[in-house]
Structure formats: structure tokens, C-alpha cells
Specification:
The structure holds three protein chains of three kinds. Chain A is α/β, with parallel strands linked by helices. Chain A has helices at residues 9-14, 16-28, 44-51, 56-66, 77-86, 93-102, 106-113, 133-138, 154-159, 183-186, 188-204, 215-227, 237-241; strands spanning 2-5, 32-34, 71-74, 103-105, 126-129, 166-167, 209-212, 233-236. Chain A folds into two domains: 2-113, no CATH class; 126-241, Rossmann fold. In chain A, the strands form two sheets. A four-stranded parallel sheet of chain A has the order 2-1-3-4, with helices on both faces. In chain A, strand 7 (209-212), helix 12 and strand 8 form a beta-alpha-beta unit. Chain B contains 22 helices and ten strands. Chain B is an alpha/beta fold. In chain B, the strands form two sheets. Chain B has a six-stranded parallel sheet, sandwiched between helices. A four-stranded mixed sheet of chain B has the order 8-5-6-9, with helices on both faces. By secondary structure, chain C is an alpha/beta fold. The chains are: A alpha/beta, B alpha/beta, C alpha/beta. Chains B and C meet through helix 2, helix 3, helix 4, helix 8 and helix 10 of B and helix 1, helix 4, strand 9 and strand 10 of C. Strand 9 (267-271) of chain B pairs antiparallel with strand 9 of chain C.
């Protein structure tokens, strides 16, 4: 199957290892992967700021880059949710619809499309999982703590296939970290406090790493961790699933 | 525009981190109690769906239900008044009191009267109003507004309340025992209940089929006030209607479990007509509700049953406090109701959220709160209630992201400074660095790595 | 135009096309058991601060009440135990202010939340359950239903001027979420299941 890699802008620039791990994982499972070079951004930063009406150019560029693939996979829940909810193109409405339906966040693609049932990976560390809100409540990657419904978790399902990993419990299993796009600077005080509280929960329970599906949340928490010179580290789930730290 | 926006008020609130922790943990505990209660009901999600659909149905037939309610209430001897706005509501209350030569009134919790600013209006007209809900009484004595719709003084520490009661109710100085403070309020307010000839209450639900309305309290203050007074005035928004009495079964199961985790409030009182020799008045208030009903994207905010579950779960509310919203109703639901009342004044509120979606999940009537927050942002920008500098920055970003060439140029710059990262588009672009470091800069971007390491599918 | 017309017209112009009411049949299962309901009722009522006693007759009720409360020289009023204590016959309910204990029959109880329903078919004076320092309810064992849905089936067509579900004693947690029993209404509630 022809799979296009959609790498969010900040992942491209700051976290190439997560993107490389995503690419290698997909290749391992037999996907014919391409990285359309003229991709830019999903348009979410504008839309979430109330400027959804300015995302036309962004949308058209996205459609031009991604319309000829079976699937589009990104190591980000947030960007994928934005595409699935808001991508439109008056030139190619059918293609835009197909893109909305075939764009996947990496973990969901591994569990639901590739139906991965074993991994060759080892990660001998205590790991806390950060449930990014858009992946959790938007894409339903795991059961949400607010609902009265059976538990499940796609990230945990995959991480359980990794050797030697120890997943720690948290006091608040799916509270927001406070990144929130432009919220992280517009509401700096609350955003920082939310992030600090999330990090503390992981530290309190002995995590060596915080992992998750969205580097935006992880970057925010990493920024706080580094400023406070804490020892806990962040790592995108793709890097763990691809074999551990290179 | 407000003197200070939500972010600035929240910043002030965050200057005392220990207090933020206390506020956050106190409310998280309420959310936790809510989870215990709701997870104990296997059919909880079906119940939410039923509540949501009953409310959707009611809003789609509200014209008829309001008339049914009026007819059935009148038949039981209740007097019905209609108020287009807050001013008319307040004048109706004042007229009723004047007619009976009443100068003192006791009130139980009613967010609608807060919305109408009834207390200051009556006080300016020589009427003394005493709030009887303990939390409301506390904020009234403190000269503050409630910071939470169910727990009005949740922002106050017991030591502060002890000091307030020492001054106003003569409790021993330095005593902050909740038991003792509650007892002092009980004694003081008991005297109030026994001496007031008029009582005003809110309404939780009003049943079209029977003309009755239901008031829910834990303290018993609504009943103490209403049954001891000669005249009971009940103020309700027109959206409080539900079709049939049996639907109360759905809503009373949902309301308190969502609010505090209790299986039901201590008192769920059904007023179907006046007691012998007494008067019962209901004021049906619009005050912007029909305007909201006319907005397809936002009308279902009118389904709200004021449980406050969205407050308690909101990570932003818990860490910014109710007063940071500077709105009668704070929290996520307040942030989608307030722009309807005054879009310019409340333009900041839909942005006081990370859109995490927890509010929508706890809502017992399934209001898509976080989606409405997103939609209000679009409306507010289009109406021009946004910082012009931000608008220009967004235009630049739109152009950059639509063009792979411009994007590549910007991308190179972005790797050395977060200033150009898309979420930085804001006039306070340095805010990232105040308390956070930037990521380590990698040797190459993924795009550059890919060009060197993969040659296929270019 | 009156405000009434103005509001009704605005509602008519703004309301969406008619949407259906949901099917509620899921909430009315036919698996009620008297014993199960009683067990749940007791457990929930006690959790929310009430005390529940299972008794055979009215004299047992008075024995328990005298054991639990200091009633010496205090005013006790009842709407049921009229042979033992005062029945309320006053016309100005303000004179109930000094009642220490009120003993009232109720129509039925609800297992899922420990609430009891009472309405003015039992007693005209609405203030009775709210003003005493302590409150006691008398309920028949077979009159406990499982949920609020069943509760409203029992009063679906009933005509009353006032009725209430009462669950536990009056309470507040407004000060730092610390639970205090006895806010404005009764400080305690005892439920006697006969």
C-alpha cells in the first residue's frame, strides 16, 4: 500500500528522530512510504486561533501533496484530528473527503490498519504515558476517564509488545498538559502550571520517560523539564516502538 | 473590551502557586467524586444521551411547551410573568415586593438573578436582599461575585471565611472550623427565614405537562425561605422547560451525580401551585436566550442544567479561578454562553481553553462545549474582536504555510528560534521562554535527512 | 406587543425543526426485588448521612428515637404517631420554629439514591420536613423502588400542590468542601422501615 508521511512542521525541524522512527516503522511493516516534499502544515494553528477562514491556501497545498496515496500517516494526533475535522478543498471535494477518511495518526494506523501484533523492540525503562487530548478525545486512542465505558488503550496495546518496558500509573490519567497551540503563549501562566503539574505526576510515580503520540505536548513538557533541570526525559512513542533509543 | 483579559487575571491568580494547587486539588476531588458516582451507573452514557435528546426535543418545540407550562401553572393558581430582559425581570420583582409593602427578601441560589444583577437593583430601590445558600451568603458578605455556580465560594479559604464571620456574625476570632462557621450561619439565617415575607428561588426544571417546577438544594434554604414566606417568586430562564414529569427521572439522576457525585440533592422540591393563603409567582425570562436559540452552532448551549461538571474537570478553570473569567457564569459553559450576552466584552473567554474536550465528556446533556469554543473563536475573529497585531500575523502565517517555498525559508529560521513556530503567532512571542526552554536543535531537519537517505518517490 | 408575545414569537422564529423524544424503555427493566431494593436503599441512605432502622411497630420507633436523641422537655410533632406525640394543627407555620423532632410518614423510597417522596396528600403544611432540628421518616418496606424512573411512574398522574424527594439530612460543603450536616434544615434524618 502507498503511504504518505505527513510530518508536522515542528517535528520536521526539532524532532527528526521521531519522524525517522515513524518512517522506519512503516517500512518494517511493508508499507511503500513516501514523504511529499512540498508539504507544509495542516493549518490548525490558524484555525484554533479563530482564523479558520485563512486556511484555504494551506488546505489546497495539503490536498495537492497528499491526494494520490492510499493512506496518510502522521506521528501526531492533533494535526491528524485537524485534517479529519476541517480539511476542505473546493477544487477537489472528493479528494479532500478521501484524505479526511484515510489520514491516520501513527498508533491507530499500526493497530487498526496494519494490525501489528508483535514488535522487535526493547526499552528497559519506567515510562509514563501522556494522553494528548486530541489523540484521546478526538481520535479515541484510548478510553476517556470521563466516560462510563470499557477500558482500552491503543498506545498501551503496542507498548505492551515492547520488551523490558515498565509502564507506570498516574494520579490523573488523561489531564491536559496545557500546550493547546497558541494557548501555550497566550495563556502562559496557566499553560505552564498545567505542564508542571503533568510532569510532577510522572516524576512522582518514578517515570524515567514521558511518552506520547504528540510531540507538541512533549515539547512543552520538555521545555519545563529542562528549565527546571529535572532528569525525566520525553520521547515520542514511535522511537520506542521502533526499537528504543538509537 | 475588559480592563484585563482572562490571561492577565489568570496570571495574577498564579502568582500564589500553593493556592493554585489547593484550588486545583479541591475541585479535582469533586471531579473524582463525580467519576465514582457516574461509573457506578452502568447505563450512564445512555442516560446522558436521553437527557441530551429530551433537551434537543424541548428546544425544537419550546414555543408550544412554554404555552403548555403557562396554561397548566395558571390552572393551579400560580401567577406567570414574562420578562424580555434583565431589566424587566428586576422590575417585576420590585413591583411584586412594593405591592405587598415588603422591604426585605430572602433568596436562594439563582444564577439567573446573578445574570440579571438583581441584588444591586433591589438594594438601590431600598430592598434588603439576603442570600441564604451558605456559599452565596459568604460571597455576599465579602462583597464578591460567586466564582463557581454550584460552589460559590470555592475560591475562599476557611480562614478567610472565619475572619469574615468574625466581623459579620461575631464568631470567635481565628476560628476557621467549618462546623462552627456553618452553625453560625444556620443560626443567623434561621432568623432571616422566620422574618422574611418574600422569598425568591431559582428553578432547576419546569414541567410543561403539569405547570410545576423543581428546585434542588442540599441545605434546605430554598424550602425554608419559600414555605415561611407569604409570597414565593421563582425566576427561570425559558430554557428550563422539560416536557413531562417522567423526564425529571432522567435529569435528577444526571444532575447531582455530575455536580458533586451525590446520588441526588438532599431536597428536590416540586412546586405545583401556591400553598393555601399564599402567592406563587414565576417569572419566565428571555434575556438573550432566543438570540442564542437562533444560532444553530450555539443553540444547544441552552441545554445546560447548570451542574458545573465542566468547571470541575476543566484544567484551565481549576488553575485560573472563577473570577478570572469576569463573567456571571465562569468555566467552559460560561465561555460559550457569555459571548452571546456581550461578544465584545467576553471575546477573550473562548480562547481561555486548550480545547482538551474533557468538558464535553462530562456534560450530562452532551453539549459539545469544546467544539462551540472553537466555533466562537471563528465568529469573534470575523466580527473583528481580536488584537489587530494577531490578525496581521495570521495573514502572514497563512501566506507562508500555503507556499512550500516560503515555508522552507521560514523553516530554516524556525529551527534556531521558536519565534517562527506556528503556535508562536502572538504579540507576546517571548512567552515560551519565560518558564520553558526550547528543544535542542538537531543537526538536520527530517526533510534534509530524508533527501540524503531516501531516493524513492520523490 | 407584550413581552409574552415577543418572547413566544422569537422562540417560534428561532427554534429548529421538531426533533423526536428519545425512547426511555431501557430505563424500566422488570427485575425489581423488594429485598434488593431495601438493601440498596439502606446502604445509600446511610452513605448520605441518614440512619436506617428496620422496625416492627410504632413503639419501637419511639424507643429508638428516645435512645438516640435527648428529647426531654423538647417539642415533638408528628403527622402519624398522633397517639404518642403532637399532631400539627396550627395555621401559622412560624410556630413550628421550636420543633426538636418531626416524625412523618412518606409515600415511598428510592433505592438508588436513598431519597423518600412525600407530598401534600399526607399533610398540607409544606414546612414540616424542613424546619425541625431532627427528622424521622416512616416507610413501608414494600414501598421502595429501584430508581427515579420507577419513582416517577408512581406519581406520573398525581395531582399535588407540593411534593419533594428528601435524601438524608440537610448538608453543605460550601466551606472548602468540608461536609457539614445540618445546614438550614434538619441536622439528622432517621428512616424507620416498617
Amino acid at each position: 500500500m502507498k503511504v504518505a508521511l505527513f510530518i508536522p512542521c515542528y517535528v520536521d525541524q526539532f524532532y527528526p528522530n521521531a519522524a525517522i522512527a515513524t518512517l522506519q516503522l512503516l517500512e518494517k511493516y511493508g508499507c511503500d512510504v513516501s514523504y511529499p516534499k512540498n508539504q507544509t502544515c495542516c493549518g490548525q494553528p490558524m484555525a484554533n486561533s479563530g482564523f479558520g477562514h485563512l486556511t484555504g491556501g494551506c488546505n489546497r497545498n495539503f490536498v495537492d501533496n497528499f491526494k494520490d496515496f492510499d493512506y496518510i500517516v502522521a506521528p501526531s494526533g492533533s494535526c491528524v484530528l485537524h485534517i479529519k475535522d476541517h480539511l476542505h478543498d473546493e477544487r477537489f471535494p472528493a479528494e479532500a473527503k478521501k484524505i479526511r477518511e484515510t489520514t491516520y495518526e501513527l498508533v491507530t494506523f499500526l493497530t487498526d490498519v496494519l494490525k501489528v501484533d508483535n514488535l522487535k523492540a526493547s526499552f528497559p525503562h519506567k515510562v509514563g504515558i501522556h494522553q494528548s487530548c486530541h489523540g484521546l478525545r478526538g481520535l479515541k486512542l484510548a478510553q476517556m476517564s470521563e466516560l462510563t465505558a470499557p477500558a482500552f488503550s491503543k498506545p498501551v496495546h503496542l507498548l505492551n509488545m515492547v520488551d523490558d518496558i515498565e509502564i507506570i500509573d498516574l494520579d490523573r490519567v488523561d489531564e491536559c498538559c496545557g500546550f493547546g497551540g497558541t494557548f501555550c503563549v497566550a495563556e502562559e501562566a496557566v499553560s505552564v502550571k498545567m505542564g508542571k503539574d503533568r510532569v510532577s505526576d510522572h516524576v512522582l510515580h518514578g517515570a524515567e520517560y514521558i511518552t506520547g503520540v504528540d510531540l507538541s505536548c512533549l515539547m512543552h513538557m520538555e521545555g519545563l523539564v529542562k528549565r527546571e533541570k529535572k532528569v525525566i526525559k520525553v520521547i515520542h512513542i514511535a522511537e520506542i516502538l521502533n526499537g528504543g533509543v538509537q | 473590551m475588559k480592563v484585563a483579559d482572562h490571561a492577565e487575571r489568570a496570571k495574577v491568580f498564579n502568582e500564589d502557586e500553593k493556592r493554585v494547587d489547593w484550588h486545583d486539588e479541591t475541585l479535582w476531588f469533586v471531579r473524582h467524586k463525580r467519576d465514582l458516582a457516574t461509573h457506578g451507573i452502568p447505563e450512564w452514557e445512555e442516560l446522558r444521551e436521553a437527557g441530551s435528546q429530551i433537551k434537543n426535543h424541548t428546544l425544537s418545540n419550546l414555543n408550544q411547551y412554554l404555552q403548555d407550562f403557562e396554561k397548566n401553572a395558571l390552572a393551579k393558581g400560580t401567577v406567570i410573568h414574562w420578562a424580555s430582559d434583565a431589566k424587566e425581570h428586576n422590575e417585576i420583582v420590585l413591583e411584586l415586593l412594593k405591592k405587598h409593602q415588603i422591604t426585605e427578601m430572602v433568596k436562594s441560589k439563582s444564577m439567573l438573578t446573578e445574570e440579571c444583577h438583581l441584588n444591586p437593583f433591589l438594594e438601590a430601590n431600598g430592598i434588603e436582599v439576603i442570600d441564604s445558600d451558605l456559599g452565596e451568603r459568604i460571597v455576599q458578605l465579602a462583597g464578591e461575585a460567586p466564582s463557581h455556580i454550584v460552589l460559590p465560594c470555592i475560591h475562599k479559604k476557611k480562614e478567610e471565611i472565619g475572619e469574615l464571620f468574625h466581623i459579620h456574625l461575631g464568631t470567635p476570632k481565628g476560628n476557621a472550623d467549618p462546623q462552627l462557621l456553618t452553625e453560625a450561619a444556620r443560626q443567623s439565617l434561621r432568623n432571616t427565614f422566620l422574618t422574611r415575607r418574600a422569598a425568591l428561588t431559582g428553578v432547576n426544571f419546569a414541567v410543561a405537562e403539569t405547570g410545576e417546577f423543581v428546585v434542588c438544594t442540599n441545605e434546605g434554604n430554598a424550602d425554608m425561605g419559600a414555605h415561611l414566606a407569604d409570597i414565593h417568586i421563582a425566576s427561570m430562564g425559558i430554557e428550563k422547560i422539560i416536557p413531562q414529569r417522567k423526564h425529571l427521572g432522567v435529569f435528577l439522576r444526571l444532575l447531582t451525580r455530575s455536580a458533586t457525585g451525590q446520588p441526588i440533592t438532599t431536597y428536590s422540591s416540586h412546586f405545583a401551585g401556591p400553598a393555601a393563603g399564599k402567592e406563587l409567582h414565576i417569572i419566565l425570562v428571555d434575556n438573550g436566550r432566543t438570540r442564542q436559540l437562533a444560532r444553530p452552532d450555539f443553540r444547544n448551549s441552552l441545554k445546560c442544567i447548570r451542574c458545573s461538571a465542566c468547571f470541575n474537570t476543566c484544567p484551565v478553570y481549576r488553575r485560573s479561578g472563577g473570577h478570572s473569567y469576569d463573567s456571571v457564569i465562569a468555566g467552559p459553559i460560561g465561555s460559550i454562553l457569555a459571548p452571546n450576552w456581550d461578544m465584545k466584552k467576553n471575546a477573550d473567554l473562548p480562547f481561555a481553553s486548550t480545547l482538551c474536550g474533557s468538558c464535553t465528556n462530562v456534560c450530562p446533556v452532551k453539549i459539545d462545549i469544546h467544539e462551540q469554543l472553537y466555533k466562537w473563536r471563528q465568529v469573534i475573529v470575523k466580527e473583528g474582536f481580536v488584537d489587530p497585531k494577531k490578525a496581521i500575523a495570521m495573514q502572514v502565517m497563512a501566506k507562508t504555510l500555503a507556499s512550500p517555498t516560503l515555508y522552507r525559508i521560514a523553516g530554516k529560521a524556525a529551527r534556531t528560534t521558536l519565534k517562527y513556530a506556528p503556535f508562536m503567532v502572538n504579540n507576546k512571542f517571548n512567552a515560551w521562554y519565560l518558564q520553558r526552554d526550547m528543544p535542542e536543535v538537531p543537526k538536520s531537519s527530517f526533510g534534509e535527512w530524508y533527501s540524503k537517505n531516501r531516493t524513492n518517490n520523490d | 406587543m407584550t413581552s409574552r408575545e415577543k418572547i413566544l414569537n422569537a422562540v417560534k422564529d428561532s427554534q429548529p425543526d421538531l426533533l423526536p423524544l428519545p425512547d426511555l424503555s431501557l430505563f424500566y427493566p422488570n427485575n425489581d426485588s423488594v429485598e434488593e431494593n431495601l438493601k440498596n436503599f439502606i446502604s445509600i441512605a446511610e452513605r448520605i448521612g441518614a440512619k436506617v432502622y428496620q422496625v416492627q411497630n410504632h413503639s419501637e420507633i419511639m424507643t429508638h428515637l428516645k435512645e438516640d436523641l435527648d428529647l426531654e422537655g423538647k417539642r415533638i410533632v408528628s403527622a402519624e404517631l398522633d397517639a404518642i406525640v403532637d399532631e400539627y394543627t396550627g395555621t401559622d407555620n412560624h410556630d413550628l420554629a421550636d420543633v426538636e423532632l418531626m416524625i412523618l410518614p412518606v409515600h415511598f423510597g428510592v433505592a438508588e439514591n436513598g431519597a423518600c417522596w412525600l407530598d401534600d396528600e399526607l399533610y398540607q403544611e409544606r414546612l414540616l420536613p424542613f424546619i425541625p432540628q431532627h427528622l424521622a421518616f416512616i416507610i413501608k418496606k414494600e414501598n421502595i423502588v429501584a430508581t427515579m424512573h420507577q419513582a416517577y411512574e408512581l406519581i406520573a398522574d398525581k395531582s399535588y400542590g407540593f411534593g419533594a424527594f428528601i435524601a438524608g439530612p440537610s448538608k453543605t460543603a460550601d466551606i472548602e468542601q468540608s461536609l457539614v450536616l445540618g445546614a438550614h434544615g434538619p441536622r439528622s434524618l432517621r428512616v424507620f422501615v416498617v
